[in-house]
Amino acid sequence: MDSNWRLIPLMDGAGELHMAIDRWLLNQQQPCLRFYTWQPAAISLGYHQRQWPQHWRSISWRGQPIDLLRRPTGGRAVLHQGELTYALITPVGQGSRRAVYQALCQFLILGWRRLGITLDFGTARGRDRDSPDCFGTATAADLVTPAGYKLIGSAQVYRQGYVLQHGSMRLQPSAELFERVFGSAIASPPLPPHLKQLTLEQQHMLIEDALTEAAAACFEVILQARPLSVVEISAAQAWAKKATNLTC
Asked: pLDDT digit string (tens) for 68-79?
């Protein structure tokens, strides 16, 4: 594994932009870790997900339509609101996908343990085919608390010996919006008191720092902070558009 990784600091943006950047970074085959938030709020579909409620196209949140888009990774739909998303790209060697998940998720387990939450892998054998909600089931790709609350849902895609793994970490989800999207209730994340008292933006900064330190320790790498340049963002958008056109 490369001992030098790029750290792309927290950035806010539209879902289509984030997916374009993730796909472009995977194509660049450059080990990196990044964090991002979604503006406006969005529902991302798994790459192979072909069915979803039609009312999702007409939902608004805080005066803005909810974005509906597709991820390059698998799984079911994720509501991106009141959360923090991470993404990492790294080369992979031999081993099953489950083994890769278990190896890459160690930095999440360590970082969140330092923040006061113990996490372990889900035990469900597969996702509920009748539910469009990714967080409705916790498989071996997901991380749950001892009480069974799914805090982090992750998904992967592989390209030419590299893997993109990204995932959503629930922090302050809106129960009202979640019920409008999925038609069911959502419990508040069981965050420790020192995290609950913070604003969402403060939580983002604290979690980003904890997970960055954990990634450096778990993967034995040096993370060098370097934001995406305007040129790189434009290249990511152009590459994603070209790739989409070629696969239509």
From this structure: 999 999 888 999
